[in-house]
What we know:
Number of helices: 14
CATH topology of the largest domain: Aspartate Aminotransferase, domain 2
Strand order of the largest sheet: 1-9-8-5-4-2-3
Bound molecules: pyridoxal-5'-phosphate
Number of strands: 13
Amino acid sequence: MLRTRLGVCGISLVNSGTNACFILLKALAAQNPGRREVVLPAYTAPSLTLPIRKAGLVPRLCEISLETFNMDPHALAKTVSPETLCVMPVHMFGLPCDMDVVRRATGNPPPFVVEDAASSLGAKFKNKETGAWGDVGVFSFNRGKNLSTLAGGCVVTDHPALFERIEAERCALPELSRSAQRRLLLKLAGLAAAVRPVGYTALYPIVRRYKYTTLHTDFESYQYPDVLAGAGISLLARAEELFELRYRNGLFLLEALENLPGVRLPRILPKTRPVFNQFPVLVEHPEARNTLIDEIARQTGVEATTLYPDPLHHIYDMGYPPDPDPFPHATVMSRQLLLIPCHPLMTEKILTRIVAVFRRIAGR
Ligand SMILES: Cc1ncc(COP(=O)(O)O)c(C=O)c1O
């Protein structure tokens, strides 16, 4: 189903998006031993650096744009070098990057383009799905993603030879034991019940434990547990309906918050159809961001959140000088970003109340 949807020749399913990155990077590195660098945005999931290093490669950062919230193509052109094995545009928050611009920015000889579509399943650039534009694409089916089976991820590619090498890496991974698979299935059932609006408040103390994670230093590596596949298939059958709801919720917020003093919204690129994983807003005043989180929770019961508290170059020593800040936009993003849920269970009534809170607080 997913293969047809994306129009690619091969999909390799594994236990997470992180592990999907790992097996594809291992496959690329083995074939291209002279090139060791992977270019990724300076503001993205810190865990992305783990598979890069574990595959024996070196992360190189690219500044982001405060207009699109994605990798800045001009900065990308300057970051790519003959050492670059691949560039990794990340479609943050479900907002598609302009893949034509990414391709043009990637120099000669061209490095591989590995799209991180972990948060953008269903989003499109020029009527073609994100993840299907690059030489390779990565998706995550982890908690909170556009289609979630609690855990899981995959690599997709339309290059048969590359697919064979990635599949060889996948087949070498261990399988999860039957008892661990059963436990996973129970967790999936529990979480599916807990995220329904009815009872969410009561169950919130439990749900919360599964929401927040500390900075990971390693990741598990195994094959996609078959036991989750049923959930994946039934979600894929409803995918368009679920994506459309996320899209509409995002557009509602985009229109309602436009031109509001104190906030900056992402510019949606022409010829793109985002599928908002969460709706990102930059809030200029740090105190306003905290007040918004508290007030939205109080008035609506909905949890607006910050994301990664620091950009990658502040979290890890990656050899960049501290002063002047080499990636100031990524730093701004980490300080100002606020995410509003826009999953299919959010109603227009709740979104309207969230907008009212913004109108009262954001510009103060
Ligand atoms: C942009 C991005 N890439 C990759 C990943 C890793 O996916 P997973 O959590 O399935 O390992 C995440 C996870 O949140 C992500 O946000």
